[in-house]
Amino acid sequence: MTALEKKFVSFSVAVAVLFGVPQTVSAMHIMEGYLPPAYCVAWGAVCLPFLAVGIITMRRLVRQQRKTMLLLAMAGAFVFVISSLKIPSVTGSCSHMTGTGLGAILFGVPVTTILGVIVLLFQALLLAHGGLTTLGANTCSMAIAGPLLTWGLYQIGKKLRVPRLPLIFLASMLGDLFTYCVTSLQLALAYPSAQGGVGASMTEFLLVFAPTQLPLAVIEGLLTMLVIMGLETYAKTELHELREGRRGLFHDAE
Amino acid sequence: MITALLAAVLTGSLLAGHLPGYGVLVLSLFVAVGFRLMGHHHHDGVLSIDGLAHHSRLYQENAFLKTGGSVALLLCCLCSPSPWPPVCLFFFLAAATVLLGGIRLKDYVSLMGVPVVFLFLSVLTLLWDFAGSAPKDAILSVPLFGGFLIVEPASQVLAVQVLARALGAVGCLFFLSLSTPLPDILLVLRRIKVPVVVIDVALLMYRYIFLLLRTARERKQAAASRFGYGSWRKSLRTTGLVYAGLLAHSFRRVSACFDAMESRCYTGSVTFLTETRPITKKLIALIGVPLGGMLICLVLLW
To answer: Which residues sit opposite A25 in a β-bridge?
Structure first.
């Protein structure tokens, strides 16, 4: 490439990044009807064991203490509400949180998975984000993969005595990024590129969605950190109650 | 604006090679202007779909048939090997939702804006491929970083297929969600034996969403009137505080709710009054005609 060509290309990339950011940015839901039937079924099947564990855990929790059902419902409603409200963003477009990282840190993975499925169903029907046939794939990336990574990193970090707040920021940010990578992989597996196969098409999807998803992950991490900070200041009793409840659950499960 | 730009690029790369160059250009511009005029969706009412569903004229129809029929149509749509049946299905269902359901066309179009951005971005990714050298049959090729961005006839066919299927599927989804309120759908799920715990939690969640949204709005207004959203840093901090306050508030609210329920003989299960609505001939025709059409198309095309 000549110098002029190089300049032209970098200019066009800058324009693309600047203007390529869509007006509405939410975490990457695969839309209704985008995946071929075989992939819908396959991703749904992958979710099944996680859903089973989630339902068993939830049943046990509710049987132990009836109040838990209301608490779970409220937590689910909270996740839905924060995923439908605007958050401040860098580019002036309006974006939304996923809230699943926060859920994983506060309530653990199995419960977050079930709440996540319900939230995804609600989002498909009430907000037209995502869809019914892609529910399995979206559950896999947003309600299973992301929360699992966030929870895992949070636990490992706690063992290694990483300071709490940076740990929460890192765990939820990386969880969000992981969700975005898994979604790109799902898209690439369904429609591999003719030239370079799954790898090339995954790179393409990652690049196309990067300008919206990278800042979103950072903001999600910051907000999760701020929310937990706020909770520790203003709702110490409730947070303690929640922890006690969960500890009881884990003893029961062992 | 962005949607319009994306739409124009998409039309251009879909039609390239099928029409002379100026035709492609004119059509792309035309599509862009169309999308610009349509505008995009607003955020004033988060739950606008819910309100529309409650006011739909199809609200009184049997929920089981509506849900089952929409899902069956959705599956037919996904299995279609040709782009035409899903596109026809979309127009049929959109017409049914708007004309029979009494949803305003303006609302329907602005709701379409939500999935459209994702669809355009990902279909463009399907269309444009990156290769080391431009193959002979490429319709468009743009040199980039020592390689070529290319559009091939095969990827054009695939993109049209995906676009049509997704359009049809969104038609089915909107037909369901703009005629059936969420609790009705959840009760249908309970009847097909989805675990009771999940449905109970979901039903309660649906009720809490409205409470939390109102509280969130009040808190945001209170924060805004105290210049809480003055700068980017401040607004991030305020948002965090508002969310934390919301969560703490909701936990406290749960305790009050639980006490109220206990004092009204709560035994661990939540039951709501449900009425089964009769199946009308209108609804059978509304679901049966497109379903029959789709099935015939599938049989003929396979």
So the answer is: A95
Q: Is there a contact between A179 and A141 (Cβ–Cβ < 8 Å)?
A: yes
Residues of B in contact with A118 (CB under 8 A): 198, 201-202, 205
Sign of the alpha-carbon torsion through B25, B110, B240, B229: positive
B239, part of any domain:
yes
pLDDT, position A118 = 92
B145 and B7 both lie in a single domain: no
Instruction: Identify which of A5, A191, A23 has the alpha carbon closest to the alpha carbon of residue B154.
Output: A191
Partners of residue A127 in chain B, C-beta under 8 Å? 46-47, 49, 114
Domain containing residue B179:
42-185+277-301
User: B267 lies in a domain?
Assistant: no
Taking the C-alpha atoms of residue B220 and residue B85, their distance in angstroms, rounded to an integer, is: 46
Interatomic CA distance for residues B29 and A141, integer angstroms: 37
Q: Say if domain A32-253 classifies as CATH 1.10.1760.20.
A: yes
Residue A125 has pLDDT above 70, yes or no: yes
Complex confidence, ipTM: 0.85
Which member of A76, A129, A205 has the closest CB to residue B125? A205
Instruction: Tell me how many helices (H) and strands (E) chain A has.
Output: 10, 2
Residues of chain B short of pLDDT 50, as ranges, are 43-44
**Confidence bin at A21 (pLDDT 50/70/90):** very low
SS3 A92: coil
Structure tokens at A44: 């749904």
- Does B144 share its domain with B171? yes
- Judge: A118–B202 Cβ closer than 8 Å, yes or no: yes
CA dist A158 and A209 (Å) reads 32
Question: pLDDT tens across B37-87, in order?
Answer: 665 555 445 678 888 888 888 888 888 899 999 999 999 888 888 888 889
| Chain B residues closer than 8 Å to A234 by CB | 244-245, 248
Mutate to test the interface with B, among A2, A226, A234, A241 (most CBs of B within 10 A): A226
The count of other CB atoms within 10 Å of the CB of residue A194 is 17
- What percent of the residues of chain A are helix, what percent strand, and what percent coil, each to the nearest 5? 80, 0, 20
Q: What is the pLDDT of residues A167-209, one digit of tens each?
A: 999 999 999 889 888 988 888 888 887 767 788 888 877 887 7
What's residue B235's pLDDT? Answer: 84
Q: What integer pLDDT is reported at residue A22 of this predicted model?
A: 42
Based on the structure, what is the number of domains in chain B?
3
> For residue A20, what is the enclosing H or E element?
none
Decide: helix, strand or coil at residue B272. coil
Residue A149 scores a pLDDT above 90: yes
Cα Dmax for chain B: 77
Q: Would the pLDDT of A20 be above 50?
A: no
DSSP character for A193? B
| pLDDT of amino acid A17 | 45
Answer whether A75's CB lies under 8 Å from A115's CB. yes
What's the pLDDT at A222? 86
Token representation of residue A146 = 């992301």
Helix then strand then coil, % of chain B, to nearest 5: 70, 5, 25
- Contact by Cβ (8 Å): A186, A30: yes
